[in-house]
């Protein structure tokens, strides 16, 4: 390999999650800095979706970490397939973030419906039917109160945990029937 190609490959690898191939936390930090600058200059309109896989620990405990990794990989693929025109980041073990702008921001409700429908019919292991359940929270940049990307992220994160709680209570009700 030529030195330049090797440097480009290293730069690319440093910004990608090794398990999923998605942008990683290093790449995410660069995006935050870019958005904070754009917010300061009032040149931005965006939304943040925070997504978290439900029951990853339960899957790891019941089926092993290999199947847990399969769940993470399948969730990453599902998220990036639905939000194919938006940057998708893996920001934690089972947590992802999508930055919606332009057309994706305008059609976000349709994308969220498609995401939920896709989750409801997707399994990572057809023989044991492990469902992909992902909580999603969303917040849109509001120039009257958001001074940093982190403000939007925090609201999306709170919304995701509310969604997670609602999904859990719905799951508990279904298991009682």
Fold blueprint:
Elements: H1 3-14, H2 25-40, E1 47-53, H3 56-63, H4 65-82, E2 88-90, E3 95-100, H5 102-106, H6 108-120, E4 134-140, H7 149-176
Antiparallel strand pairs: 1-3, 1-4, 2-3
Helix pairs in contact: 3-4
Brief sketch in words of this structure:
By secondary structure, the chain is α+β, with helices and mostly antiparallel strands.
Spatial order of strands in the largest sheet: 2-3-1-4
Helix-strand pattern: HHEHHEEHHEH
Shape: globular
What is the overall number of helices?
7
Radius of gyration: 18 Å
Query: Strand pairing plus helix content: what structural class?
Result: alpha+beta
| Low-pLDDT runs | none
The largest β sheet comes out as:
4 strands, antiparallel
Q: How many strands?
A: 4
Cα end-to-end separation? 61 Å
Helix content: 55-70%
Strand content: 5-15%
Let me know the average pLDDT: 89
Fold and architecture overview:
By secondary structure, the chain is an alpha+beta fold. Helices cover 56% and strands 13% of the residues. It is built from 7 helices and 4 strands. The protein has helices at residues 3-14, 25-40, 56-63, 65-82, 102-106, 108-120, 149-176; strands at residues 47-53, 88-90, 95-100, 134-140. The protein has a 4-stranded antiparallel β-sheet with strand order 2-3-1-4, sandwiched between helices. A hairpin with a 4-residue loop joins strand 2 (88-90) and strand 3 (95-100). Helix 3 (56-63) packs antiparallel against helix 4. It is globular and about 50 Å long. The mean pLDDT is 89.
């Amino acid at each position: 390999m030529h030195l330049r190609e090797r440097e480009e490959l290293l730069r690319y690898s440093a910004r990608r999650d090794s398990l999923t191939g998605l942008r990683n936390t290093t790449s995410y930090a660069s995006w935050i800095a870019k958005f904070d600058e754009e917010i300061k200059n009032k040149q931005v309109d965006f939304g943040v979706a925070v997504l978290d896989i439900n029951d990853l620990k339960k899957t790891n405990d019941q089926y092993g970490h290999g199947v847990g990794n399969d769940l993470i990989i399948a969730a990453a693929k599902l998220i990036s397939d639905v939000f194919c025109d938006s940057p998708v980041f893996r920001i934690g073990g089972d947590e992802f973030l999508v930055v919606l702008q332009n057309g994706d921001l305008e059609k976000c409700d349709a994308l969220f419906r498609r995401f939920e429908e896709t989750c409801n019919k997707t399994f990572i292991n057809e023989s044991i039917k492990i469902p992909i359940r992902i909580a999603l929270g969303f917040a849109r940049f509001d120039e009257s109160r958001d001074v940093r990307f982190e403000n939007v992220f925090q609201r999306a994160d709170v919304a995701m945990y509310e969604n997670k709680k609602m999904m859990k209570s719905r799951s508990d009700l279904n298991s009682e029937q």
